[in-house]
Design a protein that fits this description.
By secondary structure, this protein is α/β, with parallel strands linked by helices. The protein has 2 domains: 234 residues, 2-Layer Sandwich (Endonuclease, Chain A); 167 residues, 2-Layer Sandwich (Endonuclease, Chain A), CATH 3.30.870.10. It is built from 15 helices and 19 strands. Strand 4, helix 5 and strand 5 form a beta-alpha-beta unit.
Length: 464
């Protein structure tokens, strides 16, 4: 089943199940106990364990100016809220759209020597899915341990024979939270909770995450960084997405989250391997790997909202499915009112009309507060990224909606520093050039039919 069908199927189904119990809620980030003392030092792990306070302060002071966001203070606040330390010594590579990302992922798979752990929401039986399946089977036959977690709803329309072929080749597969409760080993069936992560970990040394699923849907690139945009038409519409490749000690954090997710399902054997090889220094990036789960500690939600609350200069967000909770809306409005440049790039073409209209129901409130909204042209936007003050950046699977923050297992990487922040800013500015700005006056003169669609869609916000 494609993303479009899933986005239409989920709300109607999940609303029925939600009636059976009370709705969960997100924490109030503004009320968190985040009063960190002046000069407090965040925890940073290197390849040999935790760095001393002096080394941590020197690391942050060396790389990051304090003219805008105070990264040492921000990192301390974020750690206090999430409980997750920073990890130093990593190399980060931004990947744009499906073709570039899938090429890098297949290259990593084909070079695997010890283990491959894949966690994905969608794994389609199409040309791209078969290409990945063949590559994974080949590495398993070569003696590499291969483990796959795929979401039951995300793969709802995929024939079971597709996965059975990989099982027959010796790959260990786990269907996350099966739609069919008879497949569960325990007595807890929560169809609303989904595994929305997109993670590939190879040999415990390379990790990928972002917005791209294993599907031919993402194979057609957008016009991002194309030199011939003016000559393209609607037939050339592709999917605009962002992924990130990580090398270095932080890969262990990815691996731990994968193993924990597998163990929590308690239904299949994980093919063991050397998942945690001796870490090595691959670069100079300091990052935080945040994994969130339904009923957990809302790590990604807290990190996002804290960063927005602390922003001094700019908040630049690219969001595929934008159906924010009121707390997130309030944080964006407050930032704009205190003079922060708040810009959001949202879809102009969407694979889900319901989500599209639900997100637009917040436009008037945001625009009235000075938030600038842009809609991407000639591409289906699927990226989930943000860069704040050019120094705090995140790439991952999390959309800015209640579903991602409350009901899904998600994974985001937070990267601190100017160098990566500048890369993210350049990408954001290019997306702006490919977008059209929505003004408040223009918005208030939209057709009444659109207003009715927004009102109706907003009633389903909690389940989208």
């Amino acid at each position: 089943m494609k993303a479009t069908s899933l986005r239409l199927w989920l709300p109607a189904s999940l609303m029925c199940w939600a009636l059976l119990g009370a709705c969960a809620s997100l924490p109030d980030v503004s009320q968190l106990d985040t009063k960190v003392a002046a000069g407090a030092t965040p925890t940073v792990h290197g390849k040999n364990g935790e760095l001393s306070a002096d080394r941590t302060r020197a690391l942050l002071a060396k790389r990051y100016a304090k003219s805008t966001l105070d990264l040492q203070q921000q990192a301390s606040l974020e750690e206090a809220a999430t409980g997750v330390p920073l990890i130093a010594g990593n190399k980060t590579t931004l990947l744009f759209d499906g073709p570039q990302t899938m090429s890098e992922m297949l290259k990593a798979i084909e070079g695997a020597k010890n283990s491959i752990n894949l966690e994905t929401y969608i794994f389609d039986q199409d040309g791209m899915g078969l290409k990945f399946a063949d590559a994974l089977i080949a590495r398993r036959k070569a003696g590499v341990a291969v483990n796959i977690i795929y979401d039951s709803v995300g793969t709802l329309g995929v024939p079971k024979e597709f996965f059975q072929r990989m099982r027959d080749a010796g790959i260990s597969l786990l269907e996350f939270n099966p739609v069919n409760p008879a497949k569960l080993s325990g007595d807890s069936w929560k169809i609303n909770n989904r595994d929305h992560r997109k993670v590939l970990i190879v040999d415990g040394r390379i990790a990928f995450t972002g917005g791209i699923n294993i599907s031919g849907t993402y194979s057609k690139s957008s016009l991002f960084r194309s030199r011939n945009k003016a000559s393209k038409g609607e037939d050339d519409v592709g999917w605009r997405d962002t992924h990130i490749k990580i090398e270095g000690p932080a890969v262990h954090a990815f691996q731990w989250l994968f193993v924990r997710q597998w163990a929590a399902q308690d239904r299949a054997d994980l093919i063991d391997a050397d998942f945690f090889p001796t870490p090595y220094i691959a670069g100079d990036k300091v990052i935080r790997v945040l994994g969130s789960d339904p009923g957990g500690h809302f790590e990604i939600f807290k990190a996002y909202n804290l960063a927005m609350q602390e922003a001094k200069k700019s908040i630049h967000i690219t969001s595929a499915y934008f159906v924010p909770d009121q707390q997130t809306v309030d944080a964006l409005k407050a930032a704009a009112r205190r003079g922060v440049d708040v810009k959001i790039v949202l879809p102009g073409v969407s694979d889900s009309g319901l989500v599209f209209h639900a997100g637009r129901s917040f436009y008037d409130e945001l625009l009235s507060s000075g938030v600038k909204i842009y809609q991407l042209k000639l591409a289906v936007l699927h990226a989930k990224t943000a860069v704040i003050d050019g120094k705090w950046s995140t790439v991952g699977s999390t959309n800015m909606d209640t579903r991602s923050f409350l009901h899904n297992s998600e994974l985001n990487v937070v990267v601190l520093g100017d160098a990566f922040g500048n890369e993210m800013e350049r990408a954001f500015q290019e997306d702006l050039r490919d977008s059209v700005q929505i003004t408040l006056d223009q918005w208030r003169h939209r057709p009444w039919l659109d207003r009715m669609k927004e009102w109706a869609a907003q009633l389903t916000n909690y389940w989208l």
